[in-house]
């Protein structure tokens, strides 16, 4: 009999509520012969305030034992900006070498978009997750004085760029439209930009079926609102990926439905799956949060672990649920989770 | 009698066509007693191919003699990415210390937007123009090998941040809504982000009338498509400003109408005004380019030099022209320029 040994990190704010629904749907979709084991971890603002810890070496050792990690949200206004982000979220991505940050965007029928004319949106962003301006390199001198200088160093390696570009080409080749867009700013950030562009062009030669294009990040934001249908797979740097995936989420149904995977394709460390939205402290505890993004993150998790049929069942359930939302009164977090559980089991 | 001594840089692609219309409207709007002198400069791809030069010290000395600079567009596919951008556009911004990059976004009545429901959009982005990831700091080692490392260094100084933050507060205070939003990514880029945030908060204390908020750049892209009306003045870093102003242009009528000023508020060097769009080589020479963005850049130029009434006449003419566009057949570049010239003179 098979098993799924999951680390669960509800985290802060609405993280608790949405993760509960994600687990509910996961239990409902899993075949009888897959034994689900979950272990909950208390990372986030509460633990930070109580102990000053964000993520210790012992924590990392414990997390390593799991097949995958499901995360709700980390972040609270009571903690200074950057402490939990750098001390937990980014520390985990870097420690477990989550270099493929996968963020699909699909505008499902019946879902509201801020764009006029209900465009066709179905693309996936492969965001690099372990390099670029996210490395924490840099510093300050004369801190707090009128002569302060603060630097941020974007670090990019051929090794790091090539592995994520290869991952993106493989994904593009496996999709019907077989198109890959590189998004960067190679006319200004020429050192990193030329590295990305040269590796992209080199790997492209091995994938003659995949149509390629290059778009500057500023222009990409224009296309995301004027021609989102032009995109199939996008590969991009860590920071550009952060920015364009929030925009992509906004145009394809909002961050209430945007899922993501922080993937280590080698399997050397467990991958982590999380909704793109944050902890939304303003609505925490009210049962108002939409658990759909977490449920879709569970689908990404299942697909990553090879449970493709179950992943598809979740995605179909979400599509069906979203299609009916316009016609129905608003539901609570757990009502949406219940409805999705019924659908995936049915 | 007064004079206006203008450097004109048509540049590449549609730059030639749109600048001609900008000058046409400028001549039509200027009062009789203002003597307009223009000198054309041949910067861009042609000169680069002929001489290998992009912008020499002698060029900078010549440009310094002018009251202001009007630029069309620089860039051509025949020139490797980055050469003209770093060698001309950015070199000029840095040499003339254009630290206030001003980019207004206003959705005028009758103008198409990709957003549903015709939202109210009327904000201005104050983008820092001489620091951040645009400094050209960084480099590569083991270039072209599988062990290449490429870095990009974002350089931020208290001096550079404070002057642009002060400029933005002054602009916010002078506007009816008196609101200023800082856009950064201070939870990840903590060194630069805290510098920006601390200075923003310090200067805010001197402007009690101005309401302030902080938004991460990724979230800002969401608000730009879901709640653009929330913005009044935005102040941000050079790269974030590049990205969000293209998105802002897209939602408020497109880059066909987006104007910008590269301003040195001290007047130590002439300021430069240019449409946000590029050289669009695919439509160059066809008379299809919309000169409106250039004409609005001329309005920014006039306002910068104190010709407020003339600037307003241009803006009113553009509003009236745009309001009627939907009902009329498409016009050529020069027909639009002619129509605007008639309106500003009338
Ligand atoms: C919270 C923050 C560290 C994170 C990021 O910037 O990657 C978030 O915005 C995201 O997109 O997952
Ligand atoms: C062409 C490029 C150097 C420039 C920039 O990145 O600033 C352009 O995108 C702009 O916004 O003016």
UniProtKB/TrEMBL annotation, chains A, B:
It is found in: Cytoplasm. Mg(2+) binds at residues 218, 242, 246. NAD(+) binds at residues 278-290. It catalyses: (2R,3S)-3-isopropylmalate + NAD(+) = 4-methyl-2-oxopentanoate + CO2 + NADH. GO terms for biological process: L-leucine biosynthetic process. The keyword Cell inner membrane does not apply. GO terms for cellular component: cytoplasm. It comes from the Bacteria. InterPro entries: ICDH/IPMDH (IPR050501), IsoCit/isopropylmalate_DH_CS (IPR019818), IsoPropMal-DH-like_dom (IPR024084), LeuB_actb (IPR023698). The record marks 134, 185 as: Important for catalysis. GO terms for molecular function: 3-isopropylmalate dehydrogenase activity; magnesium ion binding; NAD binding. Its EC number is 1.1.1.85. Its cofactor is Mn(2+); Mg(2+). Belongs to the isocitrate and isopropylmalate dehydrogenases family. LeuB type 2 subfamily. This is 3-isopropylmalate dehydrogenase. It comes from Streptomyces shenzhenensis. The gene is leuB.
